[in-house]
Inverse folding.
């Protein structure tokens, strides 16, 4: 090896060490006012949650910052989650704010290993909203709940003055049962584990963006919004998620911030590196083309019916087969692996033969996507 190559290797290693050290520091909220970036699911969101909500509300159930809190009541393990939806427009190809609200909360329960049971729904309506639009949204929620096998059992309604909301905002809260032998969490990822994604990424985000009609771009594309509980159940039945031994380590639905955000959360929680092969990441040509035109990276674009799955290498093939056996997982792909180094970071092996860091999303290129 030449001296130049040795020097280059040391330089690259030094850069990674400095980046890793910076990311280990506790985030500080320097903003004095909320911006749209704080809702994008990226770096600003993580800082806001850590510095304000986690700092002010800290407790053992909240600290893992998983998609749902899992706890035990009288010997029964339960999962509880909540989510708010402010998508604009309210209606878009493949869905609307109604089924999005149901599927999003159902999926947060499902990736926690739970069987979703019931939902609560709170709706904020704007004065002047068409009642026919509200009926359409409620009908969509009812269909989605039926498809997901849950009931909406309680709720609340508020109305604000004209101009104080964009028609309708929805918050859904869900509860589900978690099997006694299921143990999941981003911190459980181990070097050697396989990283899977259950289908083409970015469909939802690009669909909603184009539905706003602000860009002179048309595409035959629909949101991927769908309930994932059957898919997660099939996966867990096939390979399990035991506290010890091989199985599923973690599942996350890739919503705001996309797959890149999930991978960064896994890397940070487990103190591992995540190595992704760009060529292995499934992206529809339509989504890739739109992203190229708009200067977006598909890894950061929201999905609403895809999840990232971390599995032990011993069961990776069985997990892949189980996911592909379900229509919502037919296009599942292995996109990378968990590594020892660099801890807390995600690296992408690019299609051009290089390597780049995939950091948390900065800014908010796609506001109010869910």
């Amino acid at each position: 090896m030449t001296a130049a190559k040795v020097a280059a290797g040391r330089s690259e290693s030094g850069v990674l060490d400095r980046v890793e050290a910076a990311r280990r520091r506790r985030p500080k909220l320097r903003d004095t006012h909320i911006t749209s970036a704080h809702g994008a699911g990226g770096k600003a969101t993580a800082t806001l949650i850590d510095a304000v909500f986690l700092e002010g509300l800290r407790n053992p159930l909240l600290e893992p910052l998983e998609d749902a809190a899992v706890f035990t009541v009288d010997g029964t393990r339960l999962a509880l989650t909540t989510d708010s939806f402010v998508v604009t427009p309210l209606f878009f190809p493949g869905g609307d704010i109604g089924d999005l609200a149901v599927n999003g909360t159902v999926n947060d329960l499902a990736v926690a290993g739970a069987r979703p049971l019931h939902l609560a729904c709170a709706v904020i309506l704007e004065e002047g909203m068409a009642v026919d639009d509200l009926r359409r949204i409620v009908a969509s929620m009812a269909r989605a709940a039926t498809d997901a096998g849950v009931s909406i059992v309680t709720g609340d309604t508020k109305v604000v003055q004209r101009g104080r909301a964009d028609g309708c905002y929805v918050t859904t809260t869900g509860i589900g049962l978690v099997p006694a032998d299921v143990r999941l969490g981003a911190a459980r990822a181990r070097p050697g584990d396989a990283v899977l994604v259950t289908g083409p990424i970015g469909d939802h985000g690009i669909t909603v963006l184009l539905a706003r009609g602000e860009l002179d771009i048309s595409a035959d594309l629909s949101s991927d919004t769908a309930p994932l509980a059957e898919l997660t159940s099939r996966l867990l039945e096939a390979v399990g998620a035991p506290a010890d031994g091989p199985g599923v380590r973690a599942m996350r639905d890739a919503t705001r911030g996309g797959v890149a955000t999930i991978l960064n959360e896994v890397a940070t929680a487990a103190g591992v590196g995540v190595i992704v092969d760009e060529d292995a990441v499934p992206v529809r040509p339509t989504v890739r083309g739109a992203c190229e035109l708009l200067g977006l990276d598909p890894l950061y674009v929201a999905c609403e019916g895809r999840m990232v799955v971390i599995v032990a290498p011993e069961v990776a093939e069985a997990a892949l087969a189980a996911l592909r056996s379900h229509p919502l997982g037919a296009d599942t792909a292995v996109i990378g692996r968990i590594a020892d180094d660099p801890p807390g970071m995600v690296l992408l092996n690019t299609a051009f033969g290089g390597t780049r860091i995939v950091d948390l999303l900065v800014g908010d290129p796609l506001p109010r996507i869910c």
